[in-house]
Amino acid sequence: MTDSVIISTIKNLQKEYSGYKDGGRVFVEALAKKINNTVDEEKKEVIDFLLREIELNANDLGDLALRTIEFLDSPDMANRLEEIYKRQHNKKDEYWKQGVLLKLLMKSHPSAIYDDYLEKSPEAKEYFYFLSYYSKLYPQKGIPLLADSLIEDHHVAATLPSDNPNSFAGVEFDMLTLIMVSEELVTPLLEEVRRKNAKAAEHLKKHLVHLLEHYPYRFSKEIKDSFLAEL
After folding, report:
1. Given 53, 108, 159, 186, which is the most exposed site by the fewest CB atoms within 10 A?
2. What is the tens place of the pLDDT at every residue in 100-112?
3. Confidence (pTM)
């Protein structure tokens, strides 16, 4: 399958899903499903094309390719994506680096490149979404960084939930992100925040209660029973 055929197929499918107002998610999932259901040889050619786009963006489809690979079934995908990162990260901006690393974390791909990135890019420690996936893979290293983010970046020790039931603090949106990624991280994170700053921990508990009141469906019965009941 040639690049031109692949591009044409992508564009046609994109038109088919252009009416969805969801940021392209339905289209991306449909594209991934189509690729996963393609015969092996053609599937390999499409995946090769997408990885080239992530690396070189020759057809301005790099962002789409990066979003799509999250849903693709390919045993060597993560290893190949890591090699692309190693070849290109010194030439790319933060947006590209974070995007590639995040996809690798979402695939639970172990690597030393995350630590190297966090060491060389201090601003990455303010990216709660990235740190949440990093903590899921490396909880002992990631949870202290999440705690620092809540204490230092969100100033959670000085922030209480709003009296307005429709108003939510930034820390609450980040906690919803963490729960989405791995709710098992909530309890150890609270313990780490308490170890670093008791007042921040008390405020964080209040934020969690606020979330439980308004987003109860986001919490499993297990976490409600074992953790939130004590609040």
Report:
1. 108
2. 999 999 999 999 9
3. 0.89
